[in-house]
Design brief:
Blueprint (H helix, E strand, L loop, with lengths): L3 E8 L4 E8 L6 H18 L2 E10 L4 H12 L9 E4 L8 E10 L4 E5 L2 E9 L2 E9 L7 H18 L9 E6 L2 H18 L13 E5 L9 E10 L28
Parallel strand pairs: 3-4, 9-10
Antiparallel strand pairs: 1-2, 2-5, 3-5, 6-7, 7-8, 8-11, 9-11
Helix pairs in contact: 1-2, 3-4
């Protein structure tokens, strides 16, 4: 049995980025599927001298413990202590693992960012560019869904400030929202108010919101929401915010505060 592995690479003057999508190859015991997936990812990373920037695991909650163990055993010292974003997906035809996504970069290994002694992100220093990534920022203990969203945004902001940055330094977020259709308007209000209070949007501003994707999957910690993001620490003022792109119009027209990706 082998895992299905798809690889895409982007070359630039700063680094080579590698994007890996992995799914189980066939119906097999969970432990075997997980081992094959993470062994395959490890082999790709080693062959390209690459380190992980973002990683996401889509599975049933019951599979998380087994996946954690298989990942740790397969990665060995490639595991830098940053836990992937574990996201709840329904069991499919191949079993409880829906898939794994990895965004990696070749060259020097990124520095690990910790929150309460737990790895939550990375800093990549490449020629002419310094990037910060955060994974699975979530506050399941904060209360109802909107309260969790508020604290999640504040947690992300707090980490950014430790490195002299804020949400104006963020070109891209991923918002993982459990039961997204039941509270998307409420989530948008939290995010809109947060960005307004910090001067990203509103009268007299440049409407400088990160591009974003809202996905109807929640974190496996039982919370209502989680956030991944990428920030540019250097060079400063290098982000161009697009309110509309291609056939996509400004998201503010339907009450959502994010720019368009390009």
């Amino acid at each position: 049995m082998t895992a299905n592995l798809e690889i895409r690479s982007i070359e630039s003057a700063s680094a080579t980025e590698i994007y890996i999508s992995a799914t189980p190859g066939e119906d097999a015991p969970l432990q075997d599927q997980a081992r094959e997936i993470f062994s395959g990812v490890r082999d790709i990373l080693c062959s390209k001298n690459a380190s992980i920037l973002h990683e996401r695991v889509f599975s049933t909650p019951a599979a998380t413990k087994t996946i954690h163990q298989a990942r740790s055993e397969a990665y060995g010292d490639l595991d830098d202590g940053v836990t992937p974003s574990f996201l709840v997906a329904a069991e499919g035809s191949s079993g409880p693992i829906a898939g794994v996504q990895v965004h990696a970069v070749s060259g020097d290994r990124p520095e690990v960012i910790r929150l309460d002694q737990t790895g939550c992100g990375r800093i990549l220093r490449a020629p002419g560019c310094t990037l910060l990534t955060l994974s699975g920022i979530s506050a399941p203990q904060a209360g109802k869904n909107t309260e969790q969203a508020q604290v999640m945004m504040e947690m992300g902001e707090s980490i950014l400030k430790q490195f002299g940055a804020d949400f104006l330094s963020v070109p891209r977020t991923w918002m993982w929202l459990k039961d997204i259709l039941s509270w998307y308007d409420d989530f948008n209000k939290v995010r809109n108010d947060f960005f307004t209070e910090r001067g990203l949007i509103g009268a007299g501003t440049r409407q400088s919101m990160p591009a974003s994707t809202g996905i109807g999957l929640g974190p496996d910690n039982g919370g209502h929401c989680a956030m991944d993001l990428t920030a540019v620490l250097e060079p400063s003022d290098s982000i161009r915010f697009l309110q509309a792109a291609g056939k996509q119009q400004c998201a503010m027209e339907y009450g959502s505060a994010f720019s368009r990706a390009s």
